[in-house]
Predict the structure.
Amino acid sequence: MGAANVIPGVSGGTIALITGIFERLIKALKSFDRKALHLFITGKFKALAYHIDLTFLLAVGSGVAISILSLAKLLSWLFENYPIYLWAFFFGLIAASIFFVLRQIKTFNYQNVLAGLLGIAIAITIAFLSPAAENSNTFYLFICGVVAICSMILPGLSGSFVLIIMGNYLLLLNAVSNFELNILWPVLAGCIFGLLAFSHLLSWIFDHYRNITLSLLTGFIAGSLVTLWPWKQAVYLLDNAGHPLIRHAGKITSGYAYHWPALNLELLLAICLAMLGMGIMILLEKSGNSKKTKIPETL
């Protein structure tokens, strides 16, 4: 999940859904409620740990943190130097995941089909939106945190790509590198608020409209393949002199120009990496199915 969230266009929520931990993750996040606060205030820490599924959250959280710290620089370097191969790998990874999400839908009807088509339409629309201008307003940064964290846990929607659309991806990347607290604290506050509020909403939706929700998420994942298409050129915002605008040591992307690949060695290697991504997704899904753990009944 940590590695997936580093790359614009890839969702950590998709990985959570395929490996079988998505619903447990949402329920664990939802458990940060009044009961959890009461247990904390009264010093019943063992009961609190069980109520919020603390062992599970620590395992996932530490895995995400270690992944980001260990792989972020490598993935950023690959993204800069071998973008086609990296996009191809994740394209295969996410393309294979569509089949496994579809298998979780118990019944198919016109409502599920419409939900899937809506998900595809929304994801494609987001992919072709023009990025907004960079904005360091405190309230806007709070909204960025809310939207980004919701996108990160929602399968098919990439939090980092949404931040590009909102215009603040490079701003936040730079703020993390330089530890700029005036930028980071409103985003962190938005993330916490969005995570707790959205987990309650998503859990309720899953409990009441599971098949329709899974159909919508399948559409999100399928539509996100447009963003992951390897053969594209970034289009940058230009100043009056025709030069790319640069903010915080990075060019501002306004979109992508897509094209078909040429028949060459690069295409062959890209196809092999896409197949590798598919193979890894199959292994992840099998591992998730064989090691699923029961959600505590109190949740």
Summary: The CA atoms of residues 148 and 216 lie 19 Å apart. Residues 2-290 form one domain. Residues 293-299 have pLDDT under 50 and may be disordered.
